[in-house]
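User: Structure tokens for both sequences below?

Assistant:
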Amino acid sequence: MSEVAQGVPERLLRERASQAYARQSREQLEEKWILEHLPLVRHVVQKVAAQVARRDDQEDLVSAGTLGLVKAARAYDPSRDAEFKTYAYIRIRGAVLDELRGRSFAPARVHRQIQQVRRAYQQYAAAHGRAPEDLELAQEAGLSPDQLYHVLEEARRRHFLSIHGLAEDGGHDAYLPVDRSPSPQAQAERREVLEQLAVALKELSQRDRMVLLLYYERDLTMKETAAVLGVTESRVSQMHAAALFKLSMRLKGQS
């Protein structure tokens, strides 16, 4: 036994050895979690960023998401948190969105076009007692269908970062991470949001509901959703933007 060890009680030596072993085991676990979940980073970037970022930005977003994964592995507490994949998904997505927020910018022209389409939607609904279909909305707004979808995709990019495209100016966000120890008030507010979301979803067409179901609940990418629906990826992007716009308008009408 070394001279240093000779002066240390055996109990303390055992505690130090146990702590060192625990640290080593934890580091091995963290490395395992990170390596196993690296594909999740690209999946999140494909889902979250593909609709709002340029292709040139993708690798930077992957780097941000990877850092989020590393932080998730270091902070994860199996005794308190959900399954690691769920916890990591939230941290990765948050890191990617934080990176995107620093890059977002919408010209005044885009804002005016979005407001033009919103007014057309409200005017049509007031005059006909129902929400307009895509072609009806385009006609009411004085736009071609292609122009309408371009505006709706810009609307998705503009509002996606703060509210995931579900409502304007942060009114509703059903995709925020869930507080693991929410207050009764927070629980009641979340239930109210989910109830409003459920009502709004029922008012959408079957096609629009299917697009949102596949993309959000089934967690498919745009490419995978296109394959299921038998349409092109660009068409799915249009359908997704239109469905989110209609859902946003319905939620706005409930608030």
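Moving on to the next sequence.
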Amino acid sequence: MSGRGQYRRKVLNIDGRILEYPMVGETKDLLDSQATLNPYAQSATQLYPLGTKLIEGERTWRYTKNGAGTPGPGTVLQTAVVHNAENDLDLVTDATTAVGAYTISLTSTTNAAVAADYYKEGYAFVNAGGGFGSAYKIKSHDALVGTTAGSIFTLYDPLVVASTAGSTLWGLRKNVYDSVIASAAAMTGVPVGVNMLTLAASYYFWMQTSGPACVLTHAAIGAAYKAMAGTTAAQIDPSVDNMAALSEIGWPISICNTAGEGSLVFLTLDH
């Protein structure tokens, strides 16, 4: 069967921890393939679905793939930069697919050059036309090349509104936990968490997203100030009056007074 079929999320208690799997596989297969759980480990091979949620008391992590960099511990991490701005919006539907279908057929844009499955486990969303506001998780897809039509995207869920040739326009985005990078001084993505160890390029790891975490700090943060990303690369700074270009990641609960050291921050990047 195309799409998710009988997939459902399963919550497990493991040594006092809770795992919540994304709905991207058969429950039995997820349980049978369960790896030894160690939030302080990383691996070259993928052990869990991206975005798997690990909860331990007041702390939360997400299973994540690192990008090409090697950030040290306590680094503020952000989503991957958009592969090509033209893939954000307005990819044209070139063949109508009906309600209940698990595939859409898109025409690539002039400058797009995206390998097959680049957006796997990410999202396709309708940004204009019939079905506007819908977003679907991507199971697999063909490559996008030049202005070639007929790139097939297979979804986990069936369409609730038909994707109509010539009128339904789609946008694409990678999974937010796929190929994360150290945050830039001028943010090029959304902050998603903090790593607890030095990461190897393209390795899989557990990224902390909420609760107390040690975060590299650039400037002393006073009591009642928020911890913000978007001023200094990979580090946090205190909130300021004009925060238009900054992104809040949490609240300091142990204040660092020396640049280049760590503050204990209660992260608020997950729910």
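User: Anything stand out in the second?

Assistant: The first helix runs from residue 27 to 32.
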